[in-house]
């Protein structure tokens, strides 16, 4: 079905409307591209709809503000176990580029950062998880 929301043709596309797809689309828009986001569902969110829209970035400045220690080696150890032996080049790139991505998202989106249970004892604000919000709500219909 042709896109009825824009009269001009996109100059870039993004696969999926989850965290990675929307981040790629946002970066393309800030690079001057007209973007279309394509996904299999008629709802925004992808796997982010399941995870609550959180992004996982090791050693982020919000952790440092709370004196929580982290290292690239610890993050890689965690990811290796989580991915059951994922591609080392991709895992290393994720850890190395995560901070730049977080900085970009912090600058160009609204974000909410309380802990999952903000009224509980020992909560943190900013919280331990980060949630970017490009203006769409999880589960919003796209058509």
UniProtKB/TrEMBL annotation:
Residues 1-10 have a biased composition (Polar residues). Transmembrane segments: none annotated. Its cofactor is FAD. Residues 120-129 have a biased composition (Basic residues). It comes from the Bacteria. The keyword Oxidoreductase applies. Residues 11-20 have a biased composition (Low complexity). Residues 16-118 form the FAD-dependent oxidoreductase 2 FAD-binding domain. SUPFAM superfamilies: FAD/NAD(P)-binding domain. It holds the Pfam family FAD_binding_2. Residues 1-20, 105-143 are annotated as: Disordered. InterPro entries: FAD-dep_OxRdtase_2_FAD-bd, FAD-oxidoreductase_2, FAD/NAD-bd_sf. Residues 105-118, 130-143 have a biased composition (Basic and acidic residues). Keywords: FAD, Flavoprotein, Oxidoreductase. PANTHER family: 3-OXOSTEROID 1-DEHYDROGENASE (PTHR43400:SF10), FUMARATE REDUCTASE (PTHR43400). This is FAD-binding protein. It comes from Nocardia jiangxiensis.
